[in-house]
């Protein structure tokens, strides 16, 4: 028996190496060369890497020092976010030519629901091709796309034929596609989770599908039900044009590692000020404060506390952040501190996603 969720046509559009591609577009002398957007100093971090750089193993979030070791010819360029936002707006305007159901995930990717679209075109595959062609014509940049019945599968599919490609997973192909998928390709399965799954004998979607809901919840907590559902093609999350944030945060990476708690408190106060500004701008408050600490050896530690009331005030945020800072003894000097607020007063407005099985419809033009 089919239901409304089988009939959705979702496209995930993802720009190819967006920041780096913009730099190569604006600076033709960089075309065909390994480019990294970010700082080249010893404290620098790669924000984005061109495909030429990726061949050497250079990746976003990698330290600039390591990136340079992997690719001695690597060219570093400073990020120009105003320029990226300008082009992102042009791309988003193209999306709106086809549908108003656009959910941006970042400057360079978005979900589109084209089940009912402004062009009256029944084929999501054709629409995705048109959108990618329009992006190329307007911006000079390439994009990849994934097309399927839900956001999860579309997101996975968009990575399939990158760069400058697309993949459609038709309703009749969904279950086989997910069973054949390497577990590392599942959106939401990071490196640590993948290693844990390997130890449990889970290497593909087919292996994951053999595990019971109880087994997955016992080993992966709340994420267990998510894994249980998505491998069966069940992911009812709608494309939300005005996506409500789950958390708001601010963080700082320091030019020199901090070993003194006095200096850390000074930095936390500035971070709390920035967080308060962002909260007030969005008219948001929250109950759960999380302190993020990245040590000089790059290990990450997070500590959280949930209050019984909503806060958005700097002094209350800072007070709780201090408490979390003193919760444990520092094991090393610190290179990054961050504070985020979750359990927001916007959460109550979101309806819980329906948890019902999907029966994939076989005869459906895609």
TrEMBL record:
It is an enzyme of class 2 (transferase). Binds 2 magnesium ions per subunit. The keyword Ubl conjugation does not apply. The active site is at residue 109. GO terms for molecular function: DNA-directed DNA polymerase activity. Residues 258-285 form a coiled coil. Residues 10-190 form the UmuC domain. The record marks 19 as: Substrate discrimination. It catalyses: DNA(n) + a 2'-deoxyribonucleoside 5'-triphosphate = DNA(n+1) + diphosphate. Mg(2+) binds at residues 14, 108. Its cofactor is Mg(2+). Belongs to the DNA polymerase type-Y family. This is DNA polymerase IV. The lineage of its organism: Bacteria, Pseudomonadati, Bacteroidota, Flavobacteriia, Flavobacteriales.
